[in-house]
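Internal tracking record. Fields below are filled automatically when a chain is submitted to the structure queue. Please do not edit lines marked as system-generated. If the sequence contains nonstandard residues, flag them in the REMARKS field before resubmitting.
Queue: standard
Priority: normal
Entity type: single polypeptide chain
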Amino acid sequence: MQKLVLVSFLLLFTSFAVQANPEKIIVSQDGNGQFKTIQAALNSLPTTGKDPVVIFIKKGVYQEKLYIERAHVTLEGEDRGNTIIQASIARDAWRCEHPDDWGVATMNIGATDITLKHLTVTNSFGFDFKPTIINCASDTTANKQRVLRKDGHQMALRAMNGATRLSAIDCHFRAFGGDTVSPWDIDIGLWYFKDCTMEGGVDFYCPRGWAWAENCTFITLTGPAAIWHDGSKHEDSKTILKNCKFIGYDGFSLGRYHKDAQFYLIDCSFGANMKDQDIYLVPTTNTIQWGRRIYYADCHKQDGKDFAWFQDNLPAGITKKNITIQWVFGEKWNPKKTEE
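SYSTEM-GENERATED OUTPUT FOLLOWS
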């Protein structure tokens, strides 16, 4: 009996130890790791594994397009500014040869419970742009050719195919064009960003579902809006931007939507050169089911010359103290655990 109890205790202890100390794989371009490329490390994982795995990526510029299809994976860079994942992809070109967006981004996520830490993820197409015309069978023009634009859709991160519970901590997502950070699932999408920088063109931060961004910096390089949201599947869906900073070119606009959306901007700061324009509804044929839901609390321009449209206007019964991670995600997820 004593032996049985001891064996049971050891098995339980081992189980806790595995969870507390997940498998760690090292990627290093100089060969001082198990793999030289990130995708090779990802491909080495069993597709149905449920135990957490950390892929630690040493400093370097990794010219790779990544496909993450295994759940419970953390990609952790050695240093955000010097651990760079980079590819050059124009969505307009990709969709000429592919039926959907799987593969359109530098980092393509099709799995749940993915954590990103201390990384820079860049879609360099717009930064390296050269005028280009391509043959495109799906184009609507008579000659079936498409002109690629410097400010067209260029995704650094794209989550789809049932992806949810994505955390990004101390990351930098870069593109010149639109949709830089595209975590998309209006039904189950749960997204968490903390201490990140995002930059790009139109709608370059465009979550669908439930999203929380805290202590993030948004840099608008071009286009008519920085942020966008789609919460059209569930009335409770919302995007929270807390203690975030918005800067950009002279006259940049804050945000827009063309489907049901719910924005909460709390303790945010806006560049002095931001356009005097509230988050706006784009002319659309979509039915807006739940009306205009754009809320602000304690937001200010950096020059102190606040615009009237972002005066405090939280819904009745809601205060800043109510707006917590648990309030957003409920019992579905606690992303704080990914920071531990």
